[in-house]
Inverse folding.
């Protein structure tokens, strides 16, 4: 059995834990204290119960039931389950009951366990309340366990997101020309001393060495754009001087690629409120009839003053039965305006960003995994769909690399606990969970959640650095958006 930390219960370091688990299961099957053995259909519940409990005991360096403090385990369950589930899975009472499933047997089977050399509990852990009580109480607490994104973090984060989706994104897309390598196998002219003209024609190599040489030459000569009101390009040249200061140009190219990709993902999820699984389920490409990214449509509000950009995704989490489609608001614009909301631009950028690999990708999803290693693959390879864990890790890297949280105060104005910003400042944002984007109080709900007469309008403000802060504010015009 694999534990949550990636180790297996039959590994040598878990020998003592595996020993008492086998003895407890043998007692339950052959000599249960209540005289009735568990049904065969209940074995999966025991397996998951052991996995939850033993994984927690491993984290606490606890080896036997006698060392276990059930009260401490129950108190830590909200944090433990929330972290084990990740950002994209809701917690149910049944899941909490599974995490508590083994605990009662340490008391009911304590006599024979002690005879078999297994120290057990000295008192009944559920003498006051049963498993069903704790299941309901803990599941209810977990609904609000992951706190919303503090405003003091959200504002600099989405300023940085909006900045990356401007000219820097265009530069990074131009930078990816080295991946496409149009000169591979083509006829080129090179300087020579053996010709009267000083040049000769030859076929450019298409092997790995030749491609890397051309890529390095292209990156060294690449010039980043000069942004308005700036005296220098927004990024240093990727030449030998840059290489002396840190990563190689090929490594930095991947860092810049990931920055744009994660900025796009944060923009789409943060301003729509969709789950990360729905973000990763968006299809690549443009609708030939509308010119909009696939799944996106435009509707007018009841007053005709605004156009609403809506994307349809498949909701596959926390829904009974088959997955169903759901609409999410990406943004609005005044009627007649040609400017698109930032999440729509993010969808367009993601389509362009993945062009070098799209034809040979093993998925039709908009986002797919960028391969392994520190650099981008130079030669088009077969790549699969992005998974939730990789996307969450990428979002955390974006915050740590590009969002300066060093000047945060100790606590926010709308805090849920004291000193709530200290961990953001000290961790450089690595405590981020994508589920926080769905709780950010200025985020956008799905169309089904928008109450009448309260549409969301996208407005721009500006900071001292002229980076637009994207914020949702309520207007009083009625909305024509209704649930399907």
């Amino acid at each position: 059995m694999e534990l949550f930390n990636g180790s297996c219960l039959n590994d040598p370091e878990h020998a003592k834990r595996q020993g008492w688990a086998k003895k407890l299961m043998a007692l339950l099957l052959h000599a249960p204290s209540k005289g009735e053995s568990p049904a065969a259909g209940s074995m999966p519940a025991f397996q998951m119960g052991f996995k939850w409990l033993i994984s927690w005991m491993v984290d606490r360096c606890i080896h036997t039931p006698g060392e276990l403090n059930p009260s401490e385990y129950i108190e830590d369950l909200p944090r433990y389950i929330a972290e084990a589930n990740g950002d994209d899975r809701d917690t149910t009472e049944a899941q909490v009951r599974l995490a508590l499933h083994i605990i009662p047997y340490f008391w009911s089977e304590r006599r024979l366990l002690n005879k078999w050399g297994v120290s057990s509990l000295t008192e009944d852990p559920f003498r006051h309340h049963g498993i069903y009580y704790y299941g309901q109480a803990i599941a209810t607490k977990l609904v609000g366990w992951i706190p919303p994104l503090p405003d003091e973090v959200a504002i600099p984060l989405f300023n940085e997101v909006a900045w990356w989706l401007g000219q820097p994104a265009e530069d990074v897309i131009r930078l990816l020309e080295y991946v496409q390598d149009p000169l591979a196998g083509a006829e080129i002219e090179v300087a020579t001393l053996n010709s009267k003209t000083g040049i000769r024609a030859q076929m450019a190599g298409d092997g790995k060495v030749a491609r890397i040489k051309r890529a390095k030459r292209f990156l060294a000569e690449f010039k980043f754009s000069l942004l308005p009101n700036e005296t220098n390009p927004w990024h240093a040249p990727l030449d030998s001087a840059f290489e002396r200061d840190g990563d190689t140009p090929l490594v930095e190219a991947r860092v810049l690629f990931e920055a744009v990709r994660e900025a796009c993902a944060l923009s789409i999820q943060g301003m729509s409120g969709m789950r990360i699984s729905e973000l990763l389920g968006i299809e690549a490409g443009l609708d030939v009839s509308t010119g909009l990214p696939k799944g996106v449509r435009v509707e007018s509000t009841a007053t005709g003053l605004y156009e609403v950009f809506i994307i349809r995704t498949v909701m596959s989490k926390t829904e009974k039965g088959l997955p169903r489609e759901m609409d999410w608001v990406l943004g609005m614009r005044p009627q007649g305006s040609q400017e698109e909301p930032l999440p729509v631009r993010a969808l367009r950028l993601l389509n362009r960003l993945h062009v070098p690999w799209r034809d040979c990708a093993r998925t039709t999803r908009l986002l797919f995994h960028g391969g392994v290693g520190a650099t981008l693959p130079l030669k088009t390879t077969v790549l699969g769909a992005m998974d939730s864990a990789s996307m969450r890790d990428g979002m955390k890297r974006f915050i740590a690399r590009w969002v300066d949280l060093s000047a945060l105060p100790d606590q926010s104005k709308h805090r849920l606990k004291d000193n709530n910003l200290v961990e953001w400042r000290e961790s450089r944002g690595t405590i981020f969970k994508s589920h926080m984007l769905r709780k950010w109080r200025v985020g956008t709900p799905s169309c089904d959640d928008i109450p009448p007469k309260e549409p969301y309008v996208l407005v721009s403000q500006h900071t001292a650095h002229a980076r637009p802060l994207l914020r949702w504010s309520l207007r009083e015009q009625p909305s024509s958006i209704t649930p399907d």
Observations:
- Residues 249-272 form the longest helix (24 residues).
